[in-house]
Specification:
Number of helices: 21
Shape: globular
Structural class: alpha/beta
Largest sheet: 7 strands, mixed
Strand content: 15-25%
Number of strands: 21
Helix content: 25-40%
Strand order of the largest sheet: 16-17-18-15-14-19-20
Radius of gyration: 26 Å
Length: about 550
Amino acid sequence: MKDDLKEEGWRLVDSNMQDLCAKFDLLHSGENNVMRLPFLIKGSLRTPARVDFDDILRAFDAAEKVAPAGAFISHAQLEKAQVLREPVINRKTMRPTGAYQYSVMPIFSPREVLENDFSALCALYNTPFQEILELLKSLGALFAQEKTFLDSLRDLTIQTAQLPNQWHNLGFDALNILIDPHSAKATVDKDLGVWGLAGSRFLDGWVELPGAAVLPAPVHLIAAQALGAKAPAWESRKPSMRAMPTRQLHITAGNAPQIPFISALRAILTKSAAVIKSPYGATLPGALLSLGLPAAAPDHPITRHLSIVYWPGGETAVEDAFFAPNSFDRIVVWGAPDAVESVKKRALFTKVLTFNPRYGVSMIGREAFAESLEDLAAAAVADSLVANQKACIASQIHYIEADEDQARLYAQALQRTLAAFDRASPNYVDPFFVGEIKRVMRGVLIDGDWFVNSEEGRFCSGVVLVDREIPLSAVTMQRMIIVRRLDRLESALPYLHPGVSTVSMAPLSVKERLQDEIAARGVSNIVDLGHSGTMFPGMSHDGMMALSELVDWKNG
């Protein structure tokens, strides 16, 4: 695509996020580690009410008294605000300090964000796609202009980040990549492209389909017999199609901080009115968009039809309204199986797109061990540490075709590679998973050969080599790789199913031999070893062309 965007983007105004934060006392950690986060309510910035810290403590104390024993309370409701708390993590030891970061957020009512004015929606839906690209350019220009401010937010939010420092920092660096207008157009044109035509054309209006032949219905043939000469002559027409934007609700997950941003971007790229739920553990991406869009393009139709909010999962006053028939045309759910299943059951009359929890594996043929073992381990660990092994495409289990000696050498090479990552980017293991790893080591995988990297007796990363079937309860996603030795790689095929998102493979000859067998079992991505985390514009997601599922295809 040639760079035909306006030099200034979409109506870039003399405003910036830092000024908005200073004006409304937002996004800085004040006394007692309390930070105020804004919402976006149909394009209007909503800031939280002022609350006393003692009231916050009392609200959490009250919530803890009625909670199950040992449960961590992350959310408290006050009269005029809601508060999240997250454990502060010592970045040197990567252990909780015992302190908390409190995020004070506004309250909202569902009716404020629901969209039922279809005349106003048509104005949004008929916004030229080029103006969506102008909006992204303005947002990118704003982020570039305020890099120092974004850096300060990165440093502020890192204290509660469960991802290691480098992963957290790279998440901020990726923002401008995600909203790059050229990649955005390529994604839309490929994802929504049909009939050999670019997808953005179908978003912009009704498109006549070249070469489409309209066939008569049986009633037309019967009419000729029944009405004789009075029957109207059959005439074909020139058919057309349109990718109609929709009203969308996105319930996002926080296992990777980019997910809320990516989900919101999909709504923006489909020119849709949307409500985005920020997830616990990753509320900042939503706060950035809540600030960035009013600062960069307050009058843009997308801004005026976008809401970014938070509510605790299961809050019936919100969810009953959101899941009711005709509240939304699409509901997108990222998250745990129980959350996904709950939405499906309660939103029976709305199309629900689910990005279920899945996991990745690696399959390595015998021929791969003829090459450098260190290079092989480096590529395999890259697949395992996508989002520090938290992503649904990260490889948790490595199936290898090898003899016992080769398998042990491979496990040791993985251990060395993981140790290098530990030194460069120390791992955070949540206290809950400290216990889970001990349970796995002393229980379901007690008979495995363990190769553990530790510091002062604390688990940092590790590999376990086993020679039998692996229960999924052994997967911890904590920089722990399970290696299953096999005499024949084909023996791993029965363990593949739709819950496996990605299989990375080496060498290429093995991938070419088995990729159709793997795909037939429900796996979405079959890639070269070392490429599990890679992506490209227009790629499918969990077996779907996501943008194509988010629009409503119309025939004319």
